[in-house]
Design goal:
Layout: H1 3-32, H2 36-44, H3 48-69, H4 73-89, H5 100-119, H6 133-140, H7 146-157, H8 161-172, H9 177-184, H10 188-204, H11 208-221
Helix pairs in contact: 2-3, 3-4, 3-5, 4-5, 5-9, 6-7, 8-10, 9-10, 10-11
Length: 223
Amino acid sequence: MGKWACILTKRVISLAAFTQSNKIKIRDELYGHLHDKALWSKVIEGDKDALAFIYKTYFNSLYQYGMKLQPDEGLVKDCIHDLFVTIWLSRERLSVTDSIRYYLLASLKRKIASQQQKKLPGHFGENTNSFTSSPEEVLIGEQSNLELRAKLGKIMDQLPRRQKEILYLRYYEGLDTKQTAAIMELSVNSTYVLLSKAINYLKKHSDKLIITSFLIFSEFFLK
C-alpha cells in the first residue's frame, strides 16, 4: 500500500471512529433524560438504541452484583448477555417498569441461580463473604481512613450472607424495601426485620467513629 493510500486509510478509520463516538454521545444525550417508564417503553416498541443505552448504563452494576452472587466471571457475563437477548426477543410481551435497575437485578439473580443449579444443585449463594466490600466502601468512602475501613470490613465479615445482600441491595443499589423484598423472596415485614438485624449488629459491634459513619445513612436504610 502506497503512502497516500495509508494516509487515506488512517483518515477513513479515524473518521469512522469519530462518527461512532459521536453517535454514542448523541444516543446518550437522547435517552439519558428519559425516566425509566419512557425508556423501557422504547425498548418494548423495538428501539435497539434504547436497549443499548440500558446495557451501557447498567452493565457494571449487574456485573458487580452477579459476581457477589456467584464469583464466576464467565457465568455472570453469559447470564448478563442472555438477559439482554431475552429482553429483546420477548420485548413485545414485556410490561412497563418504573425501575429498570430493579427489573435487571431481579432477572439476573434468577438467571444466575438457574444456571448455577444446573451445575451444582443446592449450592447457589454460598459465597458468604462476597457482599462485604461494596457496602463498606460506600459507607465510609473510598478516601477514608484505612484503619476505619478495616474495622468495618471485619464487622461486615461476621454478618450472615443474607444480611450482607440486603444491605447491598437496599443501600448500595438504592432499591426500595418492596423491590429488595421481591429480589430476596421475602415479605416486606421480613425484609424490615432482616435489615434491622443487620443494622443493629453493625451498631452493636462498632466504635463511635464507625457508628457516626453508619448513622448518616440509617434513616435511608429504614425508609
